Amino acid sequence: MANVLIQGSGGGGQKLAPLTTPATADKIKSGKEAYTDAGVKLTGSYVESLPTLNAPTITVSGNVVNIVDGDNGNFSKTWEIRINNLPYRIIAHTGNYTFTELADGTYSVKVKARGDGFNDSEFSNVETMTISTSSPIYGVSGLYDSSTTLTRTDDAVGMSWTMSNNEISSDFDSVFPYNQMVRETINGNVFVKVPAIWWRIGYDSNNYITDIAVSKDEMTPGTGQVVYKSGAFYYGAYKGATENSVLVSKSSKTPDQSVPRAQERTRATSNGTGYQLLDLVHSRILEFLWLIEFADKKSRNIMIGLTNSNYTTGATDNLTAPSGQLGTSDRMRYRYIEDFVGNGFEYVDGIANYYVSDNPANYSEDMSATGTAFSLLGAGTLAAIQIINTNNPLLAPPAYLVANTITAYFCNRVSINTVVIKGTANTNSYVGVFYWSGETANYMNLRTSSRLLYVPTT
Q1: Judging by beta carbons within 10 Å of its beta carbon (0-12, 13-18, 19+), is residue 71 exposed, middle or buried?
Q2: Which CATH architecture has domain 57-131?
Q3: What are the domain boundaries of the chain?
């Protein structure tokens, strides 16, 4: 189509417009002269036709649409967004636009360009947008089944992990709360930060825990479920060692050994307000995160840990993945926590005889006056299940024992006494993440150390 030069009778501005067939109605211009490209004057009425903008292209991710200008940034224009083919909003920029007002649901999105002195563009490609304002939920069920394999639930369905060259690559590396578990140094001590987490914990008519799930936001409990929020805390990245009568979490240290739990508790609290030994509640948080990630109650199927004890801390510092091992039955770390299992046993505080508590002020070798009583039922020595306290579902001691079998349930041995230790320090098939051994009040052993925690009070 040839271009024509349109001149206003007043000698004003000029613009190029394509020549169109003369037409009637309100688009006929008067008082102007039109010429072809060759300068031939045209007579009669004609239509002034505006240039048309090129259509943008869009992509959608979550509740964000990205708009790419079809004119490569030329010309001043705005953008009309349509949702489900209805006008939604006119914006003045390309790039990302985030939908913050739409309810959860699935929508169709398209965009066109608008500009003064131009015809609107055609609409862009149409994309489907799914909005979910609730955070993903990751869970497992089957904690009281005899099978050691758990069933993934909610958004964890289809997720998995692999071990390659002794380092673990996990689908959970990029999701909450695992992606927020990073090392931090506080007053010289190296910790792994565990964020505040919402939990959904299911239980049966005996209050035995059947399923667990985590999310960043509060969840809606179903029948036989309770929702609970655990606060942020810092888990010692290394086994505890003593410096100047204070328990520390540092690399290149020899873990404490042959020190009673009560003395280790004093060394931990000597760091100041908020410092304590690893206790039942915070131990359960990490153990439940382990179960959700690996979906297997037999921890030896994932990593065994060093089947010896009291080796110097820092052996796994050169690993690049959050979780991995130096070799089978060798030093390991889980989410940057070295020797999460292996390299000796560790004290568990907040439990004494058959009483439990989550209040560090109550921790002692006799909590009969301050703790909550529980019973350990069943016949045998291997753990089958934890029992829930619906007011504090993470205060979950063992509840039932089964006969000596290393192919079912949790496969780890449990006994209760004044002092409880957990972990792996030998090659026995019944040790692992969920192993508990009950010891006397004055217990101390070359194979048992401790773990420092920091729990902020605000």
Answers
A1: middle
A2: Sandwich (2.60)
A3: 3-42, 57-131, 137-454
Q: Which two tokens stand for residue 256?
A: 């404490």
Q: Is the pTM of this model over 0.90?
A: no
Q: Which amino acid is at 341?
A: V
Q: Which residue stretches of 245-348 are H helix?
A: 261-269, 280-294
Instruction: Give the C-alpha separation, 377 to 380, whole Å.
Output: 9
- What is the phi/psi pair of residue 283, to 5°? -65, -45
> Phi and psi of 240, rounded to 5°?
-75, 140
How far is C-alpha 156 from the geometric centre of its chain's CA atoms? 11
What type of residue sits at position 324?
Answer: G
Residues 247, 450 contacting (CB under 8 angstroms): yes
Distances (CA, A) of 324 to 59, 248, 294, 376, 444: 37, 23, 13, 34, 30
Judge contact between 417 and 438, C-beta under 8 A: yes
More confidently predicted of 62 and 250:
250
Give the pLDDT score at 457.
87
Tokens of 289: 């995160």
Sign of the CA dihedral with 267 first, then 272, 278, and 279 last = positive
22 has pLDDT over 70: no
Do residues 375 and 356 lie in contact, with contact meaning Cβ atoms separated by under 8 Å?
Answer: no
